[in-house]
């Protein structure tokens, strides 16, 4: 019997050593049939099955081997490795720990145990275990590569790069360190170096699909989309089921705004790996861009199940915000920052979301920290966040510069030709293009529709450049009918859109968005037009030399503040804000009881979005309610949590919550009509009412404002001066409160103001659309003349 066992085992070992796995397996099975507890056979048969990749088959033999030789660190290591591969990390960790207890000086055991800890998300412990392995064998390439990967997962990219570089130095002919270098350099936004690292990896192993995939990702980051797609195609040619390459293709399409094609590519990834969280997440982001919010939320949920990463939470916040679930957005932002407190842009978005919810807890301290970070040059907020949070035009410019510089860092230098300036006999009209995603059911469209209709077609050709969903709204149809041409760039990436605009030979490109939601600033950065202007949509500087002019007026940008604007400032007479004097007001006015208002109360009103309401102005409003007996404050019902918070804040100031009345959103004509029920509109600061103030004035409702220090805080003062009501512009909050209180106490004076507003509405400069068109056309002609005559851009005032 013993001889038979020895003979069978000998044949098994010989076959194993000779590389004849089938013969070895038969001999090991025979050995174990004759001697089921044979420790060496159990261990070596486990090794054979491991080499064949048959991990599930290996598990029972590894378990029996460990039971027979509990003092063998090799046997325990093999058992731990098998358990890791079959998805039993907790048990694997236990067995690898037993192996180390027997022999703590084996680097392989520590490296494998580190991998298990990493898979369990215990990255700090994993890193410590890798460091222990490197203390035993300092030049172990696999350990150094693993260390780089863990440091990368922890966001410690500079240290990760050092680990990969050390691995490359230890083994120059290994592609894995260069692969890690490429990925890490990409995270550090050193894309040219990342590309070189991936190329080095491919020179060592030309068929390495991960390097081709990384090369594609890097080329996409450099804006070289065609080359990126080719690299992903090469990766898929070698490994057709490489799901990550499909994700890369989807990301390229998303960058180019081909969102339907992106969704299809992400579906391709998920067909190959249904559990790939990154594919679900990026699919959610593409669906969000398509406005398919319910599908986006569902895809996001699938991404969040395996692991809620920083990126997962940020995308979740974006989806929640777009769905007007601001409480959900705040929770997602908080979760993201809990993982990475140094996230770019998120702190500013989070603070604005808190304002949207009227959550003012520790607001001053948080705003101070955010502004300090902006002043230090950190990319912690989008420019619109700072318009809302800071009254300082210097802070606003600094944030815009940081944001614009980062956004244009990978934009290639302009490739377009200079336009050929024509004599009047060749083209006798200046070609103006207005660019916006908001020429739809949006305040920008309602303000500008009349301007498009009043442009002098003998002097100007007017093009509307649009993108995004415009729906079937009457205002969109009206604008389409008013312009000479509609050009939709929604299905074009930034570079393609810029080339398309350049081919139109535009004389003056007027951006109506700035840095508001859905902007296409990277298109402007490519300089598709010789003269580029920012107007209306964003009340501040864009902080970039790709914009020549900013359209303003002497109130919103007085002489002393011109230096806070990167653009050359053009100041129109009266008011910079165009208004449409055809805006319809519903003929039927609802009753106060229909709107939840007391019949005999004095109604203070503010229909601004809730993010504009801040504690200092709310304090004033509550004091007004306390003094003016029976008065109420009528606000926009912007969010249920905001409503609850405002009522709570009112009670904290000694005012009954019922004295805050909330108005639901409704169609614009009905909304304008209900202004007739209010007595006085009270403005917000540091960000004023803009369109909401002109809505009130157009409806005949007087507005009281406090003139701020930055553009966004001076708009309402400009509007009031343009309807000859400068007495309603206060220089301080104290004066603002006194003015509102005096008007509430003198109904006769208030009635006279209302009558005056009604009498002058048709002739006031603010609502004289034709006159406004002549003034802005004069500005365009002067811009065009300077360019034609070879003069550089310069600011100027347009005479009345």
Automatic annotation (TrEMBL):
EC identifiers of the protein: 2.4.1.255
Pfam families: Glyco_transf_41, TPR_16, TPR_8
Pathway annotation: Protein modification; protein glycosylation
Record's keyword terms, sorted: Glycosyltransferase, Repeat, TPR repeat, Transferase
Location of the O-GlcNAc transferase C-terminal domain: 357-584, 591-775
InterPro entries named in the record: OGT, OGT/SEC/SPY_C, TPR-like_helical_dom_sf, TPR_rpt
BP terms from Gene Ontology: protein O-linked glycosylation
UniProt repeat feature TPR, residue ranges: 73-106, 141-174, 175-208, 209-242, 243-276
Gene Ontology MF term list: protein O-acetylglucosaminyltransferase activity
Membership in a protein family: Belongs to the glycosyltransferase 41 family. O-GlcNAc transferase subfamily.
Full protein name: protein O-GlcNAc transferase
